[in-house]
Amino acid sequence: MALARDSLRRLLDDPQLPGGVREALAPDFAEIERMLSKLEQGEIHIAVLGEVSVGKSSLLNALLGEARFTTSPLHGETRAPAEAQWREERSGGVVLVDTPGINEIGGEDREQMARNVAERADLVLFVVDGDLNAAEEASLDQALAPGRPLLLVLNKADRYTDDERTLLLERLAKRVAGRIAAQNIVAAAADPAPVTRVLQAADGTEREERHVPAPDVGMLRERLWTILEAEGQTLAAVTAGLFAGRVSERVGARVVEVRRKAAERLVRQYCIAKGVAVAVNPVPVADLLAAAALDAGLVLHLSRLYGLPLTRSEAGSLVTVIATQMTLLMGTVWLTHFVSATLKAGTGGLSTVLTAGAQGAVSYYGTFMIGRVAERYFAQGKSWGDGGPKAVVQEILESVDRDSVLNQARDDLAAYLKR
Question: Model-level pTM?
Fold first, then answer.
């Protein structure tokens, strides 16, 4: 339990989260707070899940012994999750949670709400009123996926004869074999239908009497308490751990997205700076040195963005590694770059107008590639992976449309020079 609390607390208090991540995932962080409160209070949450009108609310009312949840003969009466404390001496902090029905026409939002609630519950009661249909099978698999305990409850069992009920329970057991243990498949009659009995008086006259049987949830109640008494707190810890894992994945994905967008902006800024520096500088050696310095600066900034800072020397070495692989894989482009640089100096400036734009665009493209490769390196935790730098460079070269980048380079440089 303490480990689960620590995992959730670390998510809340992580100082390394980039700006915007916490705000973007505000609902998740609010849910972490609720989960922490639940753990600290020692609560166990049991949620019902099932199609509309299978008697989920009635089932919880029967367990509670009072009508705390709204019921109706109409479909979709439960439109939002609702909770009630299970007020029995044995229950302690057990909370029953009602959810909207799944597979309701036009109720997609409520269905997702129900799934979200069930995802955070410590124990799920999947309620059916007959054999499983295809939609219920799919929902059941989804509810079982996190690995939490689940009870399959055949409600409205009073509608069947003893033989029919036995046959139906056997059918359900076969359908879920290997997924739900036999002891976790139980029958219940949360809201039994009225029955009419014929009573005969001593004088031989007969009269009809309408009788409403009491709810029959004894089997379900006993199975629940057996589970809760044996592993109640463990269930809460497991649920919190699973939830922390799911939120961590969402946080991680959001962090990756934020960093990727920031990296895109950073790379483009350096591409423009390098393209302009190379295009307007008439001295070939000087513009090449400026280009190398800008590439090293880009890598240095990317390393800080990903929380893996390099020294300037290390950044320069990384640029050299990337540039070497790029030269091996696309030497013609770099040869054109050097030829253009020579033309700029050797023609007294006559060809500068003709060559500077092209050379600046090539430099822009080179920095773009160095930025993309370096970003991959940092995103992988300062690792090239199994294939080494050559494989990473090759993959990115193949994934990038060179003409599109060069066209973008010309547009960016032209816009900058006009300003």
Answer: 0.61
